[in-house]
Amino acid sequence: MKTYIVGSLIAMALLISGCYSGNKNASSADAKDAHEHLHDHSHDHDHDYDHQHGHDHDHSSDGAHSHSASDGHVHSTAAGHDHDHSSGDADEIHFSRQQAEVVGLEVEQVAPTPFSYVIKTSGQIQAAQGDEVVIAATSNGIVSFSNPSLTDGSAVKTGQSIVTISARNLLEGDPSTRAKIEFETAEKEFQRAELLVKDQIISTKEFEQARLRYETAKTAYNAQASNMTVNGVKVTSPINGYIKNRMVAQGEYVSVGQPIATVSQNRRLQLRAELSEKHYKTVKNITSANFKPAYDNQVYKLSDLNGRLLSFGRSADGQSFFIPVTFEFDNIGDILPGAFTEVFLLANPQNNVISVPASSLTEEQGLYFVYLQLDEEHYKKQEVTPGQSDGERIQILSGLASGDKVVTKGVYQVKLAAISSAMPEGHTHNH
């Protein structure tokens, strides 16, 4: 019985082992057939792809195919075109010749030049002595401005009416009318005296007194006669210039000799700068100055305005901690006396200094840059370290070398082109 059971178990084990082995061999054969079929199909597809598109492809052992782009990346594309993603120098900015002409782009070649030591401060423009006159009232009365819009800064000409003074409604009456009456009366008395003195009816002394009264009245009348109008006595400007300041208001009462307005010829001006005492030892080395008025963006150079240093010293009131430095110059441009201004005092010229126009510099988050021209249509953004500024030019301590070509006009447009070129462009590849 035991022998039968053992024999049955051995037979069953052999049967199971045979089935397992058969299935394994069958599966291996099926996998091999499938692999060979896939390889043949892929291989045929590759050759058909080559035939249609004319490209060489690398074939791996498993039948896959690929092609390499010029940048070393592998791309599978439907059309089979190579894509070059190399962008050259990433710092280069393309700005065409046509764009440069439209914006009026200008370039300056860097070269070492003399550059003065600069002390930046503030100051005020003043009219030079002798170039101003004060217009005063020639009679008592009520002021009426000839042109209500005549304000500070208005231009006037010699003989132009500034105000009219009328005393018609005042208690003492119109002085111009009174002067006329006094003149006509004195004239009649003098003519009568001439006849009487011939007949020796009056003495020579009485005749001379009559003539004196006549001459006095005549002078007073003539002084006002040319300026008399139906509305009163007009007061005119004795010089060409502009109204520096009005000292009376419309309808105000004035007395003879009272200032009405100041007229400046605006031909020769003064620049008065206030310098801190810490620069006292440098004052004697100051030779000239540049200045930029608060109302204007333009920088004026005294060297271009026939300017000269007048004086420097302590403040006249003795209470200021600043040293006044005064220059005089021709008002060639449209410079307004009384205006406050930035002042760049120039002293101790230094040789072989690299500098660029102030318009060349741009600032970004505390860093400063210029744009260099590499060739006619390519530019580069260059970081620099600025030094002193004389208002017109800025000293460059590092970042530039002699021979560099710096953009001086059209900087903003080149900066926009740099921002535009830095923006990533989208590429679409169909796989």
From TrEMBL:
One of its GO terms (biological process) is copper ion export. Residues 147-263 form the Multidrug resistance protein MdtA-like barrel-sandwich hybrid domain. It is found in: Cell envelope. It comes from the Bacteria. SUPFAM superfamilies: HlyD-like secretion proteins. GO terms for cellular component: cell envelope; membrane. Keywords: Transport. Residues 25-90 are annotated as: Disordered. GO terms for molecular function: transmembrane transporter activity. Gene3D superfamilies: 2.40.30.170, 2.40.420.20, 2.40.50.100, Helix hairpin bin. The keyword Cell wall biogenesis/degradation does not apply. The keyword Transport applies. NCBIfam families: RND_mfp. This is Cation efflux system protein.
